[in-house]
Write a structure and sequence with these properties.
Blueprint: H1 3-29, H2 35-40, H3 45-51, E1 52-53, H4 58-68, H5 74-87, H6 91-99, H7 106-127, E2 132-133, H8 134-150, H9 154-163
Parallel strand pairs: 1-2
Helix pairs in contact: 4-5, 5-8, 6-8, 7-8
Length: 171
């Protein structure tokens, strides 16, 4: 791959990343609703209990139980679960491609991904736009890790490494 081709591909990927971030931000934060703040106050226990879940798998189990007994529309529950799996899945590709050699180990990728998702969850809590849910963190992380695993398929990994070549040492 020539240097010019590499730069063009990286620019296209960077533009796609910016578009993805804008879409994600729009879906998560550019909608109405600060009702919980108005109703309970910014840091009240009532607000925390209403829009924050720190018990792993609680929401996921609740959705499946509610679907089993017909208490909730299956489409809504599955859209929430799959939506959380899909929402941060592109990070599994964008992070290795854009950060290349800096994020070259799974643990570095995972740490960065979890930090990004935690920031989003905290922002959702503070702005009262959505809920802060540990299950969202788990599903978002699983989606990103799944795509990251796909980037380790040899032909895809080779392409990513070509986009981020080792620097040539100066003499």
């Amino acid at each position: 791959m020539t240097e010019k081709t590499r730069k063009i591909i990286k620019i296209i990927i960077a533009v796609l990343f910016i578009a993805y971030c804008y879409l994600l931000f729009s879906l998560l934060f550019l909608r109405g609703g600060a009702g919980y703040i108005a109703q309970f106050g910014v840091f009240s226990k009532e607000r925390f209990d209403a829009i924050c879940n720190l018990i792993p798998l609680k929401t996921i189990i609740l959705y499946f139980t509610a679907m089993k007994y017909g208490w909730i529309n299956n489409g809504y529950a599955l859209m929430n679960i799959y939506g959380n799996l899909i929402a941060f899945a592109p990070m599994g590709l964008f992070i290795p491609v854009l950060f290349g050699r800096k994020i070259n180990r799974f643990w570095k990728f995972l740490l960065l991904l979890v930090c990004i998702i935690l920031i989003v969850e905290i922002m959702q809590y503070v702005t009262a736009l959505g809920s802060a849910d540990i299950d969202d963190l788990l599903l978002n992380t699983a989606g990103g890790c799944l795509i990251y695993a796909i980037t380790k398929i040899p032909i895809i990994n080779k392409f990513i490494k070509e986009l981020n070549p080792q620097p040539v040492p100066k003499k």
